[in-house]
Amino acid sequence: MNRNELRKADINLMVVFEALMLERNVTRVAEKLFLGQPTISSALNRLRTLFNDPLFIRVGHRMEPTARAEEIIQHLSPALDSLSSALSLTHDFDPSISTMTFRIGLSDDVEFGLLPPLLRALRQEAPQVVFVVQHVDYWRIPDLLASGDITVGITQTRGLPANAKRKLLRHIRPCLLRADASDTPLTLDEYCARPHVLVSHTANVAGFADEWLAEVGRKRHVVLSVPQYSSLPALLAGTDMIASLPDYTAQAMAASGNLFCEPFPFQTPTLDLSMVWLSHVDTDPAERWMRSRLEAFMSDKLPAPGSKQL
Question: What is the per-residue pLDDT across 173-184, written as a single tens digit (0 to 9) for each?
Fold first, then answer.
């Protein structure tokens, strides 16, 4: 391989090129890289000269890559990942004095149930660090990691990129939440007879619990579907409605004393909560520290009794 070719290259240009491949829009790339739009346009012209190819063709409001651009990115992204990893080895990380901004992705059940204890600890350990939390779910997390909008995410996961790393944090034990106190938990008949609130980010009126009930020949009646867990305390108060949700979220909501958490009245499969990140930040000292804190406060080392995979 001719290393002399590297003398023609500018790493900053390569970063712009990768961002253009992800965003397909000069304005969004300028905003993401904190540069002016003329700077990005100038960089694109230099890239076209360097690679002797138009690289991007304007189609409406989007910049569609040429075949040469698609070929280049296949080689360039792994190279930039390796370079980022190498550069990360040149510095240490001291959370007590750091002013870094960490961008993490959390599903909203994790944000409500597991984030507060972590933040209380980090305010002592890293008082000047900034945390930006984005909502993630299993279908959004690959794109958010690839675009760099987040560097680590915690949610249920499916279909991760080839360069993603995954660590199981805990098994999710489903619980139900109710506003009316009782000395005895609901029976299966009572559970099916009650009106249900479903949390669905895709505006569905059926979820995992309906699949599990169908396996035992039962049904429930969903009367309300909402997009996030945080509204449940206000919605359930003073009603006979119940909601099904992860154990850690139900326990956090019940801690206020106005709601009551209890186990499901039937056996359920156990879902997995995982932490995922891309390989290029694997050795970065700051990111390793962040992942260690997320794991310490959001994992459950004890496996769920009788757990099984879906």
Answer: 999 999 998 889
pLDDT tens-digit series, residues 113-133 = 999 999 999 999 999 999 999
**Among all chains, which residue has been given the structure tokens 């995410």?**
153
Sheet with 174-178, strands from edge to edge, namely 221-226, 195-199, 242-246, 174-178, 260-263
Residue 303: the pLDDT is 39
* Domain ranges across the chain: 3-88, 101-171+271-298, 174-263
Rounded Cα–Cα distance for residues 85 and 287 (Å): 11
Question: Does the model's pTM come out above 0.85?
Answer: no
Please answer whether residues 110 and 82 qualify as being in contact, where contact means their C-beta atoms are separated by less than 8 angstroms: no
Q: Do 156 and 107 meet the contact criterion of CB atoms below 8 Å apart? A: yes
Burial of 310 from C-beta contacts in 10 A (0-12 / 13-18 / 19+)? exposed
Beta bridge partners of 271: 172
Domain spanning 101-171+271-298, CATH class: alpha beta
User: pLDDT-based confidence at 308, cuts 50/70/90?
Assistant: very low
> Which candidate, 113, 110, 159, places its Cα nearest to that of 136?
110
